[in-house]
Amino acid sequence: MSSSHALRRALTGVALLGTVGAGTWAWQHYHTQPSQQSASSKTGKDSSKAGQGPAVPVTVATVQKASFPVYLTSLGTVQGFNTVVVRTRVDGQVDQIAFKEGQIVQAGDLIAQIDPRPFQATLDQAKAKKAQDQANLANAQLDLSRSVRLGEFATKQQTDTQRSTVQQLTAQIAADEAAIANAQTQLDYASVRAPISGVTGIRQVDKGNIVNAATQTGIVTIAQIEPIAVIFTAPEERVSDINKAQAAQPLRVIALSTDGKTRLSEGVLSVVNNQVDSNSGTVRLKAVFDNKDHALWPGLAVSTELLVKTLDDVVVAPNEAIQHGPDGLYAYAVDADNKAQVRKLEVGPANDRNTVITAGLEPGDRVIVGGQYKVKPGSTVAFKVADGQPHGGPTTGSTVAGAR
């Protein structure tokens, strides 16, 4: 019994020592951890102050020196270079429609045939009248010759009467010739022909209808589409620039779809209207396009780009690089140490892709075009080159899209 009691006391002592040791370790760990956390926090702050944070991922592009075409953009409407409503010039019944709707016809092609019989009859009658008068003239000339040969045996009155008859019949024949020409013209009008080359529209008259020259309804409309015209406008303050440039050489005009994504055709400016619209403050312009592929169609709405001038050897940067701040325009440039620097900018003409930089950037500068919202002045950046951008130095002498 005594040995068993001694064993229990020994085990109890071991358990008590273990409990005291665990409590001591917990107390030491509890008081040590805050100081370690504080030290770690201080170390992080010092590291941040030292600028040792991770590099900011961005996209960069290279500032270039290039030729920059300056465009004026506008909306315009396509119209036929010439548009004619084909009408009949005589009255009658339509015997034939000689075209198909939407057909391209040439000047002189038959469009419709009016019943020609009444006009042919009138022409035949005029020719017969001329033949009759010619016979009467021949007889009068014989009578005049006889009177002249009789000499003193014919009275002067008889001779003068015969001479007057010849003159009257000669004038009558001239009138007959005019009547024949008129009758022939009316007969020709019975064949309605295309006055210009172009594409026909929807037919307004069917075979068998009675038409007359007094009605305003035409048989069909023909629009000339080769070449074709586009009417658009420009601000009144640019009239002087346009006229000066046009005096040097015909200005190039590009026609695009209304969303500006599809290039349709290229032509030249032909007319600057002779007055400015005081209500809208714009001037109407007319451009002419060859339109061999028929990409332009009468009535089509298009966007236009008028090339006014080209700026040579100017500094050009992508629009994405230009930021707006309280002090004006600026851009982030990446220096040799891959750190972001703020550059204040002065700019010139721009388009939907590029802007002319007049101050603040130089050719070859790398500017941030993506990821700027994460960048601060002095930030270290890890960059990739934007698609379509050179990986080396600036591109000199190239042409970039112009201001629109």
Automatic annotation (TrEMBL):
Annotated compartments: Cell membrane
List the SUPFAM superfamilies: HlyD-like secretion proteins
Keyword Transport among UniProt keywords: yes
Q: Which Pfam families match?
A: Beta-barrel_RND, BSH_RND, HH_MFP_RND, RND-MFP_C
Positions of the Multidrug resistance protein MdtA-like beta-barrel domain: 227-308
Report which residue ranges the record marks as coiled coil.
123-186
Q: Where is this region: Disordered?
A: 31-54
Q: Where is the Multidrug resistance protein MdtA-like alpha-helical hairpin domain?
A: 122-190
Q: What is its main location?
A: membrane
GO CC annotations, alphabetized: efflux pump complex
| Start-end of Polar residues biased regions | 31-42
Any idea where the Multidrug resistance protein MdtA-like barrel-sandwich hybrid domain is? 82-222
The chain positions of domain Multidrug resistance protein MdtA-like C-terminal permuted SH3 read 313-371
Q: Which InterPro entries match?
A: MdtA-like_b-barrel, MdtA-like_BSH, MdtA-like_C, MdtA-like_HH, RND_pump_MFP
Query: What are the alphabetically sorted keywords of the record?
Result: Cell inner membrane, Cell membrane, Coiled coil, Membrane, Transport
The entry lists its GO molecular-function terms as: efflux transmembrane transporter activity
> Which family is this sequence assigned to?
Belongs to the membrane fusion protein (MFP) (TC 8.A.1) family.
Q: What is this protein called?
A: Efflux RND transporter periplasmic adaptor subunit
Q: From what organism does this protein derive?
A: Rhodopseudomonas palustris
